[in-house]
Amino acid sequence: MSDPTRFDSPYHNPVLVREVLALLAPQGSANVPRVLDGTLGGGGHSEALLEAGAIVEGLDQDPRALAQASHRLERFIASGRFTATLQNFANVRPAPAAAEGAVPDVGTFDGILLDLGVSSHQFDDQARGFSFREGAPLDMRMGDSGMTAADFLNKTDEDELAAAFRDYGDERKANRLAREVIHRRQSRPFATSDDLVGAIRAVHGPRSGAPEFARLFQAVRIAVNDELGRLGRALPALRDRLTPSGVIAVITYHSGEDRLVKHAFREWSVSCICPPRQPMCTCGGDNALGEVVTRKAIVAAADEILRNSRARSAKLRAWRRRQTPLGRHPAAQARRLGA
Predict the structure, then answer these.
(1) Can you point out the beta strands (E) in 88-241?
(2) In sequence order, what are the residues at sequence separation of 6 or more whose Cβ sits closer than 8 angstroms to the Cβ of residue 243?
(3) Which CA distances in Å does 135 have to 138, 191, 215, 229?
């Protein structure tokens, strides 16, 4: 692929397209791979995979994103190589899918892609409330239902507010900021970006600016959408939807997301699961579910960052499911699969 920018659109510019194709696109196999794009967005990654010869199933919880991608990829819908479903990837269940609300007949895949975070269009659309532009509503929902950012700031207790600011925003003054939010909402509820900016400036001083705002608005967005919780629950289910030798690739934009993905991939790749101090292996050994493909996170090249500044924080990690079944030790299998 000579020019990844051709998959850009006014809706969203996909990051690390070349790198995603290297991991998930057909590599001379006679079989046409099936790929799940769990974060369809503007459809850029899906279009690149479809042009490379894959069959793609796309999921997105945002109906506007789904409509945009479906229009963009209608030629592939007509040929039967692309389908799009209004759904959050966290609702994919391990096979067989039995839980109410799970993605129907999602099947298994040779590749799975998650591109986490906010699309360019969502971020730029002031009505969605993801940015700290003056007067933007405090919404921040990825879809059209559930708690808004205003709800979170107006109804959450002090301890939970402080935990969100600290854990998702690396905020050293998390307790003080939580108290400031509580104090301010008693006289007037939080409604727009100006209200949260005012609370941040009260804690960090009038010279605080974009770095503090971006970090703490992101923390609220992660809390509102339960992004880390959903990711943690989804990863094992998505792993179990991979065919033998199938690859899952995840692009993260936040240290907490990256840490969660890295630890999950590492845990799935361990052969012996006995306690470290146990003198003899009793788990049966050789029970690794697969192997890490990317020993270090892949990051965007300088030229990509130059044309798309949002690629600066992107990190791509990938993991491959093993070809052969797990060993026959039933207790070991149950423990590795989380039973």
Answers:
(1) 109-115
(2) 108, 109, 110, 321
(3) 9, 9, 18, 30
What whole-number distance in Å separates Cα of residue 200 and Cα of residue 132? Answer: 11
Tokens of 33: 């791979």
pLDDT in tens, the chain (339 residues): 557 777 777 667 889 999 999 999 877 666 789 999 999 988 999 999 999 999 999 999 888 889 999 999 999 999 999 999 999 999 987 665 444 455 544 579 999 999 997 765 565 566 665 677 888 899 988 877 789 999 999 999 999 999 999 999 999 999 999 999 999 999 999 999 999 999 999 999 988 888 899 899 999 999 999 999 999 999 999 999 999 999 999 999 999 999 999 999 999 998 776 777 777 776 656 678 999 999 999 999 999 999 888 899 999 999 999 987 555 444 444 444 443
Other C-beta atoms lying within 10 Å of the C-beta of residue 70: 18
> What is the DSSP code (8-state) at residue 172?
T
For 188, other C-beta atoms within 10 Å of its C-beta total: 9
Please give the domain boundaries of the chain with CATH numbers for all domains.
4-121+227-336 (3.40.50.150), 143-224 (1.10.150.170)
Query: Could you tell me the two tokens for 61?
Result: 């919880």
Label residues 14-32 b or e (16+ Cβ within 10 Å = b). Answer: bbbbbbbbebbbbeeeeee
Q: What is the DSSP letter of 224?
A: H
Widest CA span in the chain: 66
Q: Which of 107, 136, 98 is nearest to 34 (CA)?
A: 107
User: What is the secondary structure of 283-305 as a DSSP string?
Assistant: S-S----EEES-SS-EE--HHHH
